Every structure is written in structure tokens, then in C-alpha cells.
């Protein structure tokens, strides 16, 4: 029996060794896929940086006019109706009656938000935005050559444009803004702890600054949780329940924010990285404290966090004409942050709230983070519903000091090959852990001079936002040089506008094998739209979009701040173990009744956009 026992043990050890070897081999295959994707996206970013150097060439500007295809108004030169074996588009009937959607694998398309397409013929009027479309056009041959498998490749600029291949029609025109997307934010800011302090006073009801109601039920357990798609949905739901009322207490809002941060640090459930406080208000402080008291308090608490090795930056946003701009600006200046004024009747909040990642992007441009790539947790692509993921990397102009953040280069990948290799579901916790590991960046170190910081403030919001320097001549070498032929920028970018005024079905829905839209399929698409109703909240979308790769708590100030804070701050430490974010860095504080549940994919949340795209 002794010999049999020894033989059995030896056999078990041999079998285990074989199993371990097989697992190791599978992991190596997956690692090779990841590494190749990372190599490819870094090469794509290098190409964008290369063509950017030619942005001012007169030839670049001359050839840009009438040479770009718009995602909503253009017919693509080599468009084909997708075969059902490639993917099925639900908006065109998911293959019913042989219907699917048109795309062009040989061409790039350009998307810009409607609010930026404010020129004649749906063209942008902003020079920097036009410039980004023109220089990214120079990368089109590279994108066509390196997009053989049909997976999406795209570049989102910091100015708001997106260039993508394959070219396809957007289901909802003018809604998409790349700067709101998790892949963009994750690649541009790295790990961080984020606190959003929202004014919920009565005046926030003006101009629809806030919607919904406050549910005052129950207090949550303190602590932060990672920014999984489930947790972000819970955060969105909580924000939608806020109702304005009462006065405004800057002190109370900041006190609650710092208390939550300190508690989370004590519980060792933070990113261990930079802290960003986003402070939004539309009015003056009404609790009797003067601005010096508030600023001194903020400085004291940031100094206390500094003793815990946490660099804290406050980003302030004045909403509307009644906001106390002076104190908001002073708060930001005192912490090395950025202040911006946001008009009531505009959509500037989207652009303004994206300023925080532009600062943190500077910490990813060199040193340990120079070749940083960010992965998005696997999600269901909007087109076809297949599981996929995205890998992104920031793009810079290295001719300035510090390097100027230009945008984000991204590649998509289907998960089916990874699932087959590992024999594992894309949504499993072990699969998510792999993405967490691959996306962990070093903590971005923000070490700017006052002049460099004011240069960034100037770029974001003009001279009124600077703290020490305000003359543009002082920013030489910090700001990019203006192109000498700026007057030669084209005022008509689109190659054609044949599809202008048509709905998605009329532009995109087709019979498989054809090269043009089909009236039959367009009618089917119209009937599908009639039976569905989706409401999009883009203002809330930006709030959720920006909180990627971070730890987050949303705090309302002041009258309901305790209720909102406790509701917004739940999920308990055990959720830190249950959920993970691909950038190992974001926790959300939410209501106690918000249990973990499946929700919209991170790149296509219903609250943010409903376009037919897998981004």
C-alpha cells in the first residue's frame, strides 16, 4: 500500500504539473495578445504625434478642405452593407429581412459634437478643432493600412473631434464627444481619488442646473468602491435623485469631502495617488464664513493630506452669473488647481469638467509613465453586442515644456479569441483582474512651475482663469505656436453632405451585399425607433464619464449634504474586494440600497449616448 500511495502522489504531482504548464501556456498566449495590442496602440500614437508636427504646413491646410467624411451627413466612397457573419446592427433590425448597416473599411469618418458644429454646413468654427481634424487626416493612410481586421481604430482629440475607421454612420447625430468617454479619461489621467462636491441649493433649479429629487432614506456605510460599470450606474442613479433646496455652505461641503478622504485613507482603500476635488456651485457662500476662512480651511486640510503623501488639487466651476467667481478662483489657485466659469445657457460644463484630466495627463508624458496604456474592462459592443475591450494611450506635442496633451489613441478588440484561449467568460472576475494588472500606472507626478500651470489655465479658460501670469507672451515655449497660415484653415471640411437631413435608417440601413441604403430596411428601422424611447442626459454623462480610474464620492452642499453624502457614499469596503476597475483606481460612494447588478457597458451608457458604435 505504501508503494501505491507514493505512486498515486507522484501521478497527482505529474498531473498538476501538466495542468500548471497548460495554464501557463494559455496565460502566455493571452499576454502576447495584450502586448501586441499595446505595441500597436503606441505605434498609432507615435503616428499621430508625427503628423501633428505638420499641422501648420500650407499643404496640410489646403488638402484638408472638402476631404473629410462626416459621420452623419456623408456618403462613404466604398461603403458596403455588413454581412451578418461580421456583426448585426440592432437599429437596422439585427438581420431581419436581410437588413444590416453600411460601413466602409477603407475610409475614416469624423465625428464632432453638435454644439461644436456651429459653422455653416455643420462645420466647426473653432480653429483648434478644425486644426485637429486636418492634422489627424494625415494619419488616415496609416489607419487604413493597419486596420485589416475590421476592429475599430480611433483618435479622440482634446478639442472634441474623433477620427475613426471603419467609417460608419452614427445612430444619434452630434451627441458623441470623445472627451466624455471612459477610454479617453482613463488614458489621460491615470489613477486618482476624486471627490465631486455639488451645490444642491435652491438656486441650482434655475435653468435646469439640477434635475430629479433627493431621497433622504437611510445612511450608508462610509468608504469608497471601485469604478466598475455597476457602481457607476449606481452613482448615476443617485445623482438623478438629487433635488435642489436650501442655501450654500462651502465650508460644510469641503469639510465633508476631506473627512471622507481621510477616512478612506485610514481604511487603506484608496488609489494611494493624487486627490482631485471637483467643486461645483452657482452661488455665494451663505453660511456666514468669509472667503479667507474657507480658503484657509481648504489649505489646512490639503496640508494634512500632504502629510499622508496625498497631493490634493481643487478644481472649481462657477455655474451661472450669480456664482462667486473670486473665491472660487482663489480656492483653485491656492491648491494648484484650475477654475472655470460656465455659462447658464451653454453646454460648457462638458468641456470645463474635462479640465482636470488635462492637468493629470501631464504626469503621464514622461518617465515611468511614458508608455502608459489603459485597458477598459470587457463590455458588450453596441454594434452586434459582442464582448470586447479597448486599449488607449495619451498623445502629446513634445515640442512644448511640459508636453502638451493632444488627445488619446485607441484600438478595439473582440474578446472571443481571449475567451477561447482561456476557456473563460469575458465578464468573469479573474478576467477583469488581468485588465486591472495591465492598466496600473505609476502615480502621475504633477510638478509644474507657476508659469507652466498658468499656461495650462490660459489654454483651458483664457487669461481670466490665470492666477499669477496672464500675458500670452509670457507663455512662450509653454503654449504651442500658432500656425502662421491660420487664415488658410478650411471653412468646409466635408467631402460631401449627401445624407444631410436624413435619419439613421435612411442613411445606414441596407440589404446585405448592397452598397446603398434600402427603403425597406429604412422603414424597418423607423418601426423599431417608434417602439423604443431613450432619454439621454449628457450633463450627467460627463460627470460619470470623467470618473474613470479614480476613487469617487459625490457630496451635495449644504442643506442636504449629509443626506446626499451618505447616500452617495456607500458600498462598503467589501465592494472593494468585489469590484475592480481596469485602472486600479476609482471608488464611488453610493446609497446603501444600491446593490451590485449588471448594467450598461462602460463605453455605451444609455445616459451618455445611444450611437451605433462600440465605443
TrEMBL record:
One of its GO terms (cellular component) is voltage-gated calcium channel complex. Residues 1-21 form the signal peptide. PROSITE patterns: VWFA (PS50234). Residues 230-356 form the VWFA domain. InterPro entries: Ca_channel_alpha-2/delta, VWF_A, vWFA_dom_sf. Keywords: Membrane, Signal, Transmembrane, Transmembrane helix. The chain crosses the membrane at residues 540-564. The keyword Cytoplasm does not apply. It holds the Pfam family VWA. GO terms for molecular function: voltage-gated calcium channel activity. This is VWFA domain-containing protein. It comes from Thalassiosira oceanica.
